[in-house]
């Protein structure tokens, strides 16, 4: 996977991710996490067993916004509210485990209601957060239940273990879900396949396989 750390956006504004300069917002170097709160030499994540490092350091070298800053929070909320004004009704938060739950709670608390002329009055946007939790890291899905639904990567993997790998038995599906030590249904979004486990990268677990093969 390759990343472009500098260039121009579709709107014409320039950006330099290495220096955390995004004049179109604007964001500057003080708006990204740095050596003051990330202890690694290159400001990148090396130890996924350290929650502070996972949330305060750069993921694969990408600039990491200082979401603890009120200014940054305000800019993020402003952008989301602009989309809500256009009629957007829901949002997927990528790599949510790399953000502190309290920071996300603050941003989401600033969001306006959905457009009443489209969705009715008093409706909030639907939010779900990508948190890859296969049970091997200290950051867990349940830390994010208070700010929206969370992706349940275990769901598709467990079904694949039955129908594709035959390492488990279909007779146990009678209590599939919470009975299999999965999180509460109302707190998660379930799926068979997404861009992570299709390719077996990003910590999304082993490849689930082609869901079309799961037929009756």
Automatic annotation (TrEMBL):
Chain segments carrying region Disordered: 195-216
Keywords from the UniProt entry: Carbohydrate metabolism
Cofactor dependence: Ca(2+)
Keyword Plastid: no
InterPro entries: Alpha_amylase (IPR006046), GH (IPR017853)
Family: Belongs to the glycosyl hydrolase 13 family.
Protein name listed in UniProt: AMY-like protein
Origin species: Mya arenaria (Soft-shell clam)
Source taxonomy: Eukaryota, Metazoa, Spiralia, Lophotrochozoa, Mollusca
């Amino acid at each position: 996977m390759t990343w472009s750390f500098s260039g121009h956006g579709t709107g014409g504004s320039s950006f330099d991710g290495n220096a955390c300069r995004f004049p179109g917002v604007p964001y500057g170097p003080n708006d990204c996490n740095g050596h003051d709160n990330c202890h690694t030499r290159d400001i990148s994540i090396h130890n996924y067993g350290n929650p502070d490092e996972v949330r305060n350091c750069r993921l694969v070298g990408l600039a990491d916004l200082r979401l603890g800053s009120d200014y940054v929070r305000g800019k993020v909320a402003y952008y989301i509210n602009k989309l809500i004004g256009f009629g957007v009704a829901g949002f997927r938060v990528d790599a949510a485990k790399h953000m502190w739950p309290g920071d996300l709670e603050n941003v989401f608390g600033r969001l306006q209601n959905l457009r009443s002329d489209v969705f009715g009055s008093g409706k909030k946007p639907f939010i779900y957060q990508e948190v890859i939790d296969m049970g091997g890291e200290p950051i867990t899905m349940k830390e994010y239940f208070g700010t929206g639904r969370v992706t349940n990567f275990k769901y598709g993997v467990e079904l694949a273990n039955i129908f594709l790998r035959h390492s488990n038995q279909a007779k146990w599906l009678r209590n599939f879900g919470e009975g299999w030590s999965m999180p509460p249904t109302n707190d998660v979004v379930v799926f068979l396949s997404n861009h992570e486990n299709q390719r077996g990268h990003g910590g999304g677990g082993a490849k689930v396989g082609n869901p079309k093969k799961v037929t009756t």
